[in-house]
Amino acid sequence: MKILVVGSGGREHALAWKIAQSPRVQKVYVAPGNAGTALDATNVPIEVTDTEGLIAFVKENEIDITVVGPEVPLVLGLVDAMQDEGLKVFGPTKAAAELEGSKVFCKNLLRTADIPTADYHTFRSADDASRYIKDRYNEPTDTVNVVIKADGLAAGKGVIVCDTRSEALEAIDRIAHQKEFGEAGKELIIEERLFGQEASVLAITDGETIVTLPAAQDHKPAHDGDTGPNTGGMGAYCPTPIIDEGMMERVESDVLVPIVHAMKRARRPFKGVLYAGMMLTSAGPKVLEFNVRFGDPECQPLLMRLKTDLVDVIEATIDGKLNELEPLQWDDRPSICVVMASEGYPGDYQKGRLITGLDRASQLPDVKVFHAGTKLDDGAVVTAGGRVLGVTAIGDSISKAKLQAYTAVKEIRWEGAWCRKDISDKALGY
């Protein structure tokens, strides 16, 4: 088989790496890819939003399956366009991808389906949203405990946690007036802030059968101790002990099954990866958000542990035959991904800085360095994004996996490189 992976991040590098291990696969292409995918597959210079270019490439090269990694082409309808051409493609349709593409749509569906989530209000104008805050809180320092969210896609950054009235009004201004996240802020949500541990539960579904994957835990805030601004994710580990077997059964019965049924009732049947971002509150698990693809960086530690041929899973999903698939096989050892980022991220950062030490890190046992924001410049690997690398390791325990991941991190250098030092520490108290 020949397979095309669409995307250029750490998730897509992990997908290409795992797909290439299948004995059924002869060639893996990645469009547009990065410096890491160039090692494990063949890069194709086609952007994820170039639907016509991607379809033409698939036809000309007789690609058997296209795997769409990131959310943007899914929300824009790449799957629909490929299906219209009779091509095999893994991922949800445009209508189904609105579950991630619009937080307002998602919250309204959660309410309709009676799936536990935070209370919320939606607003189409900054003035209305500001008035809502001002009517309820008098002083700038009043405690509000709300989360302000841009409705559309914002690369994981359109969510602002606010402690005070003045912070809430500033967040509304950034999203709706200053348009910091562009068109994503044409609508916004003011939501009650939930407290507890966050966890990610991913499942693969063909619209009928749901195959739940081991729970992972992402680390969204930029700095140690979950401080600083939200990011696309600074690291993840899998499995997480905060979701035990009983909690997983509850998530499946109260969240995953109802959302798949709700999407079907809404005539938006869902096929692909369903990602539930959960907050484990004192009142039980509640949904923070849904994503419609593998998480990045959760994908990296998940696929590090997967033993089953990923191509079999992808094909069964496309063909509606997940019920015929044998239970997935996993390495019993936990894995950890530490994201190395550019100085300034999640704000402005410089690109083009030379990365050294990649070979030394890659030679360490049980380590895989997944590239995210990298590119090749005259044969040298340089930075090309905010989140640059996902250094992933597997070990006999979480602490051993962590040690191996950070040992690899220490081998890698570029000017301004940084990372969180506490990825997976939350697991040590369990």
UniProtKB/TrEMBL annotation:
Enzyme kind, highest EC tier: ligase
InterPro entries in alphabetical order: ATP-grasp, ATP_grasp_subdomain_1, PreATP-grasp_dom_sf, PRibGlycinamid_synth_ATP-grasp, PRibGlycinamide_synth, PRibGlycinamide_synth_C-dom, PRibGlycinamide_synth_C_sf, PRibGlycinamide_synth_CS
Cofactor: Mg(2+); Mn(2+)
Gene3D superfamilies assigned to the protein according to its UniProt record, in alphabetical order: 3.40.50.20, ATP-grasp fold, A domain (3.30.1490.20), ATP-grasp fold, B domain (3.30.470.20), Phosphoribosylglycinamide synthetase, C-terminal domain (3.90.600.10)
Biological-process GO terms, alphabetical: 'de novo' IMP biosynthetic process; purine nucleobase biosynthetic process
GO molecular function terms noted in the UniProt entry: ATP binding; metal ion binding; phosphoribosylamine-glycine ligase activity
Enzyme Commission number(s): 6.3.4.13
SUPFAM superfamilies membership: Glutathione synthetase ATP-binding domain-like (SSF56059), PreATP-grasp domain (SSF52440), Rudiment single hybrid motif (SSF51246)
UniProt xrefs under SMART domains: GARS_A, GARS_C
Pathway terms, separated by semicolons: Purine metabolism; IMP biosynthesis via de novo pathway; N(1)-(5-phospho-D-ribosyl)glycinamide from 5-phospho-alpha-D-ribose 1-diphosphate: step 2/2
Superkingdom of origin organism: Bacteria
Catalytic activity reported: 5-phospho-beta-D-ribosylamine + glycine + ATP = N(1)-(5-phospho-beta-D-ribosyl)glycinamide + ADP + phosphate + H(+)
UniProt keywords, alphabetically: ATP-binding, Ligase, Manganese, Metal-binding, Nucleotide-binding, Purine biosynthesis
Family according to the record: Belongs to the GARS family.
Protein name (record): Phosphoribosylamine--glycine ligase
Lineage: Bacteria, Pseudomonadati, Planctomycetota, Planctomycetia, Pirellulales
Gene: purD
